[in-house]
Amino acid sequence: MKKLYRVENIVASISLKTFIPLKKVKKLQHTQYNPEQFPGLVFRLPDLHVTFLVFSSGKLVCTGGRSKADIHNAMHRLLRELRKANVSVKTPWKIEIQNIVASGNLNRNLDLNKIAYGVEETEYNPEQFPGLVYKIPNSRITFLLFGTGKIVCTGAKKIEEIDEAINKLTAMVNKLK
Hints:
Elements: E1 5-15, H1 22-25, E2 31-32, E3 41-45, E4 50-54, E5 59-65, H2 68-84, E6 95-105, H3 112-118, E7 122-123, E8 132-135, E9 142-145, E10 150-156, H4 159-176
Antiparallel strand pairs: 1-5, 1-6, 2-3, 3-4, 4-5, 6-10, 7-8, 8-9, 9-10
């Protein structure tokens, strides 16, 4: 079956288990560090569309990747850059996916009013926002639904969770027809 969505962004956390001297690292290209505003250093890899928040504790938050492989490649680039600032990481690190954001299209118009009245787990106020918020029951996954059939999915930690949630979403929409 053809996928009805595309992964737009993955948010991941990584622990390097080592102290990172942010004042040294801020000298690298593509960094921003203003500790009065925010305790972490922002490190961008513009060609990969990936951004890291780097904290002195060695904890990282990575955004912008569209796959675990994207994040893995960006991590290797970050580690090479850190070595330029005489910061080496000797301990193994692991990527932990915290959230996957995907967008898609159900290829049909949706009657958002009908969904809002027919399904309990929804929020819809078209005067404030044109999309309907639908929370999959017993799940951390939430959808934004638009009348055009376009959808945004957030809250998954695995691609399989998105597949399962979209199956539940389409079953719910079909049931209301």
